[in-house]
Amino acid sequence: MADADAAVPPVVVPSSAPPPAPPGGAPPKVTHHGRVAAPVASSNEDTEELPEFEPFGAPGPRGFPSLAEYLDISKVDMMKNRAEINHQQHHTDRFNTNFLIVRRGQEFQVKITFNRPYDADKDKFAVEFGIGPSPQFSKRTYMPVFPTPERQSPWAGRVVVAAGPEVTMGITPTADAIVGRYRLYVAVVTPYGIRRTCTDVSRDLYILYNPWVKEDVVFLEDEEERDECVLNESGVIYHGTWDDIAERNWNFGQFDFGVLDACLYVMDRAGMPIVNRGDPVKMARIASAMLNSRDDDGVLVGSWSGDYSYGVAPTSWTGSTDILLSYYRTRKPVGYAQCWVYAAVFNSFLRCLGIPARVVTNFYSAHDNDGNLKTDIILDENGRIDRKNTRDSIWNYHCWNECFMARADLPTGFGGWQAVDATPQETSDGMFRCGPASVRAIKHGELCFPFDAAFVFAEVNSDVVFHSRKRDGTMEVVKVKKDHVGRLILTKATGSYDSRDITELYKFPEGSVEERTVLEKGEVYGCARDQSTLPEADVELRLPALEVAVGDDFELCLEAVSRSGESRTVDAYITGSVVYYTGVTSADFLFKTPTLELEANQSVKELWQVPARSYMKKLVEQANLHFIATGKVKETGQIITAMKVVALHMPKLSIKVSGLNKVNELMVATVDFTNPFSLVLEHVYVRVEGAGVLSPVFKYYGHAPHQQGVQHTLPLRRGGVPHDPPRPPEEPQDLPPGRPLPQDRGHCWIDQWREDLS
């Protein structure tokens, strides 16, 4: 090694270069010099102003003559009132903004007032649009629009009305125009040069994707579905278990003041080149990385620890507005998120920019399996689960997004709904992101198509494989459950608050010929299944469905059903665990070892009473109880299993609204909560928000005694949300000393119960 090191030539620093930084000193500043002539334009906030006067040549000895006799611009009306034609026709009238917002591929109008009547034969002018630093026509970041058909640019222009000095211009951006914030100029040609309107931010406008226009790649033909997936601000996110589904209401807030700027800032923060922002595939892929903070200081910090002392608990969020505005204001990631928060905020981002999007929930979602189709559970020789060696987990549910777009990079037929996921699980091309992956490609096993189709395919198609681990460490497959993972995939129904089953969009029916063909095709692309061929057991274990409220005692039933003509004896083990919704075990609270004697073709049941005190002090957030029953049939040596997840039902809030449901008419919302537990709840917070009527507000209550409640009354007004960003709530005067604000900590009543029991 010494000889090899000596053979390396020493580094020679040219005398013209600065000396290297001393050890421990600051590293040299990284610049674009020597690599490119100018930095890549990647910030929509940085706008380089076009010159107010651009001469055709050098001025004479006395400078340029007076230009007063030539056409000049007196006023530019962006026609940005929400009741005017632009916002109405472009479906942007719901945006709470002071700027014009339009959609690409569709004409909008601008009214220009000159200093004298406009003469189309003599006067020449153009409406110019620039986006980002150093706008260039070749990059499509600078686009002039002319009023005459003789001279046209890619963006079409025409004179709609010319009445004296007032000219109304119709402007149609291309259907693939860059999405973002533009600055508008009016340029008039004089014999000596071009003069433009003075810089005025009130003439800025936003151009978004347009799912109403066929030429746009995000076009969605179904009108009801388009309205749901672009314009609806209120959503439902499903969670719980596949046979006991719960709902979370969410305010996407894509039209709230400041949210559009926040979404564009997310792209700036990612360093996404301006020229790529008209491509929804690139936009969705970069956003799936930027919505989490794992490798790029993105929007949300994920946490499943249960300790949210430095942020807001994931279960406390009710909408996306606070999250996006906080990130935009502070330039720092916001804590905390779990999968449904990532999906909900991502949904707001996509809908805000005009990409049709929806949140989907996959019940029993396989994770951390590196793209294979096996989730392994290890049993000991007697059939008891081996916690130490069981590493894989199945999430009770997992939320991601679908966005609608054509895919010119894929074969015909694989456009439409695309799966995208911002929850940081596995890296894709070096970053924590997932998608967009064609849902049709996932269903048909075309896993070579970009992006990350194999990962989503595994989430909905994995087998649960039970292994028996012998004393020498060898393992034998004893049971394979092929229908457990991807049991049900839901999204909100179009035009209602009901659920819609979209499982058939992701997979063929279990056991069908098509499913077997798809799984064989998946193996070609590396998604290997377990090929064990096991004889079907003649005894089955069952755990019936349970509906349990938090704090309730309940009865657990294990049923063994024999289909044999002979008697059978089953040595069974049943374990009850408190688990996170990710399937990770927190603590065991139940362990039973019954021996079940079955006569031929009969069934037996074993019942146990489970008191609340056995599990309550071990609960974690999103309380879930996981029961795994395993058994070994003495006569045949076969292993039989059953699994059941019980999502404990939380107490409910009630909300009543009184008053007239009319624009600018006062209404009153009353929030009620009654404490159903036998203890006093301490440090109770109420958080309320409503799309279009109420920005997020907090109310702190010291305590809520048993069978007593808290009530909070709020005035609200439809259409009355101010054109100002929401301010953080002031500190309540009755907070106990040292108690953090509700925006700093999401306090869970489970903590109080745990403290009481201890």
From TrEMBL:
UniProt keywords (A-Z) are:
Acyltransferase, Calcium, Metal-binding, Transferase
Q: Where is the active site?
A: 339, 398, 421
> Can you tell me which residues bind Ca(2+)?
461, 463, 510, 515
Q: What is its EC number?
A: 2.3.2.13
Under Gene Ontology molecular function, one entry of this record is:
metal ion binding
Cofactor(s), by name = Ca(2+)
Question: Which GO BP terms sit in this record?
Answer: blood coagulation, fibrin clot formation; nervous system development
Q: Which reactions are catalysed by this chain?
A: L-glutaminyl-[protein] + L-lysyl-[protein] = [protein]-L-lysyl-N(6)-5-L-glutamyl-[protein] + NH4(+)
Protein name per UniProt: protein-glutamine gamma-glutamyltransferase
What is the native source organism of this protein?
Gadus morhua (Atlantic cod)
